[in-house]
């Protein structure tokens, strides 16, 4: 195969995946825009005063109702923290924003099947629960105070404009807020902003996934993910999945095409779930944590997020194996 033929094959595979997810993306972003238009950022901060179960559950619900862009989620989490939200609850919100939103669920169903969507949803809740336990055990008051002081400096990272934009409509019934002129304007603006915030990640994810699918043989992935050793693969997958994500530079819904390639290549079920979880610890976002909260908190978030992501993936794989819900490789 010539170089030109290889490039054409990679682009063609990327186009096929893009065409397959286009309308689900439009639907997901439309649903997200409607919800964002009726939920106020100020109200979010008020609803997240501590790390008790009620606040964490509220953080999950608010995160699921927000933008799926990882950068926007990270920026909004800092904004909530600066406005008085509990730090643990703000991080729970951040995780929910990138793992429980409608567009991610829709694309998972389209590209990989409903079992992956269900595993992502269940795993996100488990991941946040593990994170809360880790924060309660290891987040020292001094480190938190240091992070708050750094956050108050307001150093720019990425997508702060999206986080600060609050066009939500709070007057009238839910239907009146959605259908009012202000509501329709807010929905259209959020829809466009969501597209603008993630299109580079989606395009990058599709191009990388197309290239990997076309150029990298399955034998390479099967060796990397210990495909011929099922027990070891079950242990290794959730550990290596987040590490692959860290160096992929792709976040938000853009990592789902990559996840499909990895699954077809032989990574374990828990491994692919851990990979999807790990868009919040890719290298560019780690640098934003450093700017937002300081080097020590960035390191703390990297370690605790990684442990929570891998731990949740282990739990999900074990539960889905017992229930007989793990699909065969190549089904996506």
Query: Number of DSSP strands?
Result: 0
Strand content: under 5%
- Helix fraction by DSSP (H/I, runs of at least 4): over 70%
Q: From the alpha-carbon coordinates, what is the Rg to the nearest angstrom? A: 20 Å
The unreliable regions are none
* Count, helices: 17
Shape: globular
Distance between the termini: 26 Å
H/E series:
HHHHHHHHHHHHHHHHH
Q: Helix/strand-derived class?
A: mainly alpha
Overall domain count: 1
Average pLDDT value? 81
Largest sheet: none
Q: How would you describe what is shown here?
A:
- Helix content is 77%, strand content 0%.
- The protein is mainly alpha-helical.
- The mean pLDDT is 81.
- It is globular and about 55 Å long.
- The longest helix is centred in the first third of the chain and has 35 residues.
- α15 runs antiparallel to α17.
- The protein has one domain.
- The chain is built from 17 helices and no strands.
SSE layout:
Elements: H1 3-37, H2 41-46, H3 53-64, H4 70-82, H5 87-99, H6 102-111, H7 114-138, H8 141-151, H9 160-164, H10 174-179, H11 181-215, H12 218-224, H13 230-246, H14 255-265, H15 269-277, H16 283-293, H17 295-322
Helix pairs in contact: 1-6, 1-11, 3-5, 4-5, 4-16, 5-7, 6-7, 7-15, 7-17, 11-14, 13-15, 13-17, 14-15, 15-17, 16-17
């Amino acid at each position: 195969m010539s170089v030109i033929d290889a490039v054409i094959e990679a682009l063609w595979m990327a186009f096929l995946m893009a065409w397959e997810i286009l309308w689900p993306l439009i639907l997901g972003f439309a649903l997200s825009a409607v919800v964002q238009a009726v939920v106020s950022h100020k109200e979010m901060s008020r609803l997240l005063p501590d790390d008790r179960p009620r606040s964490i559950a509220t953080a999950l619900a608010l995160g699921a109702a927000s933008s799926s862009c990882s950068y926007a989620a990270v920026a909004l989490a800092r904004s909530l923290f600066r406005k008085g939200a509990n730090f643990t609850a703000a991080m729970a919100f951040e995780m929910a924003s990138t793992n429980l939103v409608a567009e991610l669920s829709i694309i998972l169903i389209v590209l990989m099947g409903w079992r992956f969507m269900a595993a992502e949803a269940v795993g996100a809740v488990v991941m946040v629960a593990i994170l809360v336990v880790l924060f309660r055990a290891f987040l020292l008051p001094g480190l938190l105070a240091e992070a708050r002081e750094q956050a108050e400096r307001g150093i720019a990272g990425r997508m702060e404009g999206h986080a600060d934009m609050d066009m939500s409509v709070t007057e009238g019934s839910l239907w009146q807020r959605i259908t009012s002129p202000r509501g329709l304007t807010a929905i259209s603006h959020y829809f466009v902003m969501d597209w603008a915030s993630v299109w580079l990640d989606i395009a990058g994810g599709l191009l990388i996934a197309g290239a990997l699918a076309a150029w990298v043989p399955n034998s390479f992935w099967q060796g990397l993910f210990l495909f011929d050793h099922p027990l070891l693969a079950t242990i290794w997958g959730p550990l290596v999945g987040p590490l692959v994500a860290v160096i992929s530079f792709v976040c938000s819904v853009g990592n789902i095409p990559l996840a499909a390639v990895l699954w077809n290549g032989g990574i374990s079920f828990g491994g692919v779930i851990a990979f999807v979880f790990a868009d919040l610890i890719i290298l560019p976002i780690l640098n934003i944590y450093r700017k937002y909260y300081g080097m020590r908190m960035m390191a703390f978030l990297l370690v605790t997020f990684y442990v929570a992501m891998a731990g949740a993936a282990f739990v999900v794989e074990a539960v889905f194996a017992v229930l007989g819900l793990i699909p065969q490789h190549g089904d996506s």
